[in-house]
Amino acid sequence: MRSEPVKFTVQTPLPCGPVDVTVTDVGVARLSFFGDRERAVTGPAAGDDPRVARVRAALADYFAGRTRGLDLPVDWRHTSGPQREVLRTLHAQVGFGETVTYGDLARRSGAFEDDPEPAMVPRTVGTIMGSNPVPLVVPCHRVVASNGLGGFTGGLAIKQWLLTLEGVLAPTLDWSPAD
User: Fold this and answer.
1) What's CA 149's distance to the chain center, in Å?
2) Is 140 a catalytic residue?
3) How far apart are the first and last CA of the chain?
4) What is the pTM of this model?
5) Which positions fall inside the Methylated-DNA-[protein]-cysteine S-methyltransferase DNA binding domain (predicted)?
6) Among 59, 140, 143, 162, which one carries the catalytic annotation?
């Protein structure tokens, strides 16, 4: 018997503050930087759920620098087609402290080998990154433009913060990791 998905909020040191997470019996199904805090579960229902505890612990370890990524299962049911191929490739192949360009990720995934407009493929991958239902877990912040950081649905401040945490960018004087 499957239990219901649980939606909860996790406090983070990110510039956006807390993130909302939804977990299912399969894994993390959603993560939102700017979610619906009023509907997020708080109290004993979320606190007693081992799925919630696992996500909270993984995020705390990641933000504190005790781990080099988020080793959490992903519920891929909210993805399909090229989006799923690209996101799975990113999840499997681009590790902590690494970056990949939109175009290189497209090539690695093989999702666009027969695309009639190859010049548009990096932009398509950018759109896929923007539709990623589980950022952080599937680390779309590690995907950059060939000429700079590129965009980020959560905002460039979050992307810069995460890339600084992972050692890709040098910290600025006002940057500080989790306590």
Assistant:
1) 16
2) yes
3) 39
4) 0.90
5) 83-168
6) 140
